[in-house]
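Chapter review. Work through the record for DUF2384 domain-containing protein before attempting the end-of-chapter questions.
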Amino acid sequence: MGKTATPTLQGDVLTLQPGRDDGECRPPGVRTFVLEVASEAASNTLLASLPILDRLLSEKITSVRKQRMEEMVDFLAAHMVAPTQSETEMAQRLASRHARVLNEFGYFTAERLADMNHSRAHNRSALTDNWRKRNQVFAVPHPNKMLHEQDVFPAFQFEDGKPIKAVHAVLEAFGGRKTPWKLALWFTSNNGWLPGSARPVDLLTQNPQAVIEAAHREAEGSAA
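Structure tokens for DUF2384 domain-containing protein:
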């Protein structure tokens, strides 16, 4: 059995205008429209299309309602299901590591970096937005949203307020495959690809090429 062809209208043949309120009682939210068709042929095509359009619209509405219901269920379930003991312990460990990164190395806000670089842009985030688009630096969400609504920039990426070139090369090597916090932890954790299993952050200016090579090796390993 062949597929049913859906009639189409081509050209400027339809005009849709809001209908006038003639005082007729209608359910709340219902509106009327006047549809002017340019020709009899277009009118016949439109009339033939209406049953198909009605079916497609009904199917689409049903699909959207189902998707929204699934999203609501997932949202409610996420708040109702208590985390397991292992999940709680993992979250605590990660929270401790995130705090350690910011406490040990410090961080800059976009406004602070704009001031350090004497930026005259009215938008105080313009400078760092440009750096981020060019993959020169990365930012992480601050754990305390009441203190910092916007993302902050781990300070080890900068020297005299300007991005360290090796950071750009590392970000390019990973190609967006690491989340911002995973990047921060990679930079600040001991790395077996580096001499003495040093932390990349400690060699960013002393031996940047070794750090870049370590990033490429890990990126190639994760992509394999």
